Structures
1.
Amino acid sequence: MPQSLYLVASHPDAPQAQPLINALSADLGTRFGSDGRDSFGDWQADDPKHVFLLACNDDEAVGCGAVRPLSESIGEVKRMYAKYPGQGIGRAVLAGLEAAAWRAGYAELWLETRISNTEACIFYEKRGYRRIPNYGRYIGRDDAACFGRSLGPVPAVTSQPELQTTLGNS
């Protein structure tokens, strides 16, 4: 993992996030025929249940991930991406999302990836996520693999993640 890697609370529309989201969308479109760009259609920046993190190495944004609400107690992990695979960026982003989701009051995190995305399936399983029945818009989709993980008891008082502010977000 890069020595100077740190997480920043941000927004999907932040200028530093856009190249990462575009690269992820291009990769998903090429590999699976769908780019997932509609992930932030219902994003509410002023809602503490919506979490978006950037992973930065010095001044370069090198990874991202988000959590949005499925219910009051279940958050959905979206748009996980590491610009440089195999350097611990994805692990750091996911750990940051889990901590931020717990502080936001979520008891569980769910996510979906493609069954054919074996790297992602293995990544999540290694981090304690287990296959769950397909949920929401993934019900009946044979190409979808849904995973879930308990975050433990929800804290009595919730707050936003204690992270640095975003880099030049306007």
Note: The two ends are 29 Å apart (CA to CA).
2.
Amino acid sequence: MDLRALRYFVETVRQQSFTAAAERLNVTQSTVSKMIRQLEDEIGQPLLIRDGRQLHLTDVGRVVLERGQEALGVMRNLTQEVADLAELVRGELTVGIPPMVNLLFPPMVKAFRARHPAVALHLREVGGQRIEQLVATGELEVGATLLPTEPGLGLETRSVGHYPLFAVGPRTSAWAAEQRVALAALKDAPLLLPGDDFSLTRRVREVTAASGFEACIAAQSGQWDFLVALAAAGLGTTLIPGPLLARLNLGAELVARPLAEPRLDWHVAVIWKPGGYMSRAAQAWLAVCEENLLATG
């Protein structure tokens, strides 16, 4: 069976028009019609019923459409896999990394660039929840987020780091006298958190709801330094991961205390969708992440 004829048939059904299919395929309409007739002759049954401007699939046509799409998908994967033999010589990879966790990834980016200098590495910086969705739908092959991931997305994960979160706020905060801040101490505290598409905010909402209260979010921003500035202005308490705390100049007006809530630890992981095709560049990225973990573990 001619794969080109299958492609023309599938595209005609998709476009619901011989003319539109021909335009998409960069061929003449007569060529599309001829190839579909040849396919029908080879199968021995009609595949399409032409009713004015409408195209309707026959029972056989539905089967050919379904199996044809599968066959074309296999061929696309085959073509991609063959091309990937040289991809690490000239390729590209986009990795989704939330702005809130990107401070952990410079060693991985450096190692990847040193090993594969001809591969264009793009970093897509959006919230962790959005990255999970993009990886789950295949728009991104690999990314990073906070654990646990959204249930039901079926993502594979590999931990990059597990760190405590610190409550950071004015010295006048009700919890400032404590050595460790219990979750209950934040029940009535105005919180300064990342946007709703960030995994940390999702976790805060989930954990506080499980503890019987709703987080009181006073303001949101995707920038750590701005959240700290809001806290310094006396607007509330923000939550800062341990690795970032040492890099911030909190100033005399602020105090930081570790959270006494293990469910809100800052647990960063790389993620990918199992079971499907993964480019060699994405595989190389995961290998570099794994080696970096071994080197620092």
Note: Residues 59-83 form the longest helix (25 residues).
3.
Amino acid sequence: MVRDTGTATVVTGLGLVTPAGDDERAFWAGLCAGRSTARRCEELAGLPADFACRADRTDLDEAIGGRAGWRMARFAKMALVAARRAVDDAGLRPDRWDGGRVGVVLGVGVGGVSTLVDNVRRFDGGGAQAVSPLLAPMMMPNAAAGEIAIDLGAHGPSLAPATACASGATALATAHDLLATGRCDLVVAGGAESVLTPLVAAAFGQLGALSTRTGDPAAASRPFAPDRDGFVLGEGAGVLVLERGAHAAARGARLRAVLAGTGAATDAHHPTAPDPGGHGARRAVEAALDAAGWAAHEVGHVNAHGTSTPLNDAMEAELIAGLFPHRPPVTAPKGVLGHTLAAAGAIEAAATVLTLEHGVVPPVANLDAPPADWDIDCVTKQPRRLRVDRAVSHSFGFGGHNVALCFERVRPSGR
């Protein structure tokens, strides 16, 4: 074991709904294969970017069971399925825990936008009486956190941080704080997003943020590549169960990783563009390293935000090269998954945990060789086998939000 986990925040469960697969094995195999999941979407036809990375789940209502699914938007359904998977993976029984000591923190950026758009049409055509009475609870971003808490009987703090594309990572950092301060014994935390609608795609397209590589969607998301031209929309959910180390040990839980430190800082530069100097991002990473008690040279792997946009990737590559001159291997899951927005930080945290467990760094999809413009060691073409003890995951969001998470390896053990 790398460190004493008794007083640490530990990861005991993972739950996923992603374009690369839902169960952990399929998700990990998809990342390690390094193949993009992007494809054309019928509902986006006619837009400059008519493709996305969809999570192929048409059975969410069946997976949830009962009648609860009818009151949820798609993002909340994915969040609940992922949360149940994470709790089950952690070996927990909600009917046996002290719900007052269980928190839920679920980051969402937008909420039920497709439901909102549908009801705007209804209102325009039929007036107030045509609007669904469920519109408010379905569109509100905090619906996912609320539905998870209801389903699991979690009566501790229930929060829904919205820091755009850093929301999932912010949720994990917030959960870490709830555990460190003794407010909770365990927290179900992560992020979810589903906005594959023409309105949202058009909005990001008008910003110039999306790739328009319509002739070859599978090659469109290409983090750190010299010819990258924007990100690809994705959807999904990622949920982790975080626990106080002593609580996990008392119930004989399997420890999957230690969340050793978190850091956050703000650019205060521009609503959508990152600070080109990366000062806020660097402060976030340095704060996480300081909280973990690590020197920069002890980091063995970087899971990059890597959106495939010209500005973000240039800023982040310079940050990595400057802060980690020993060149730890870098991956960027958005090449495979697209940009799942608020879910990205949590899904990529799960990927970081799996790298620590398996000793494998997945390749960056659509990147044929390490970038020549920056001295960083991007893993390309094939997964790289490498024991990693300490890893950092980056998440950056519109509004200048920067979050870094430091994860540390533990030796596998039985439950």
Note: The chain has a mean pLDDT of 95.
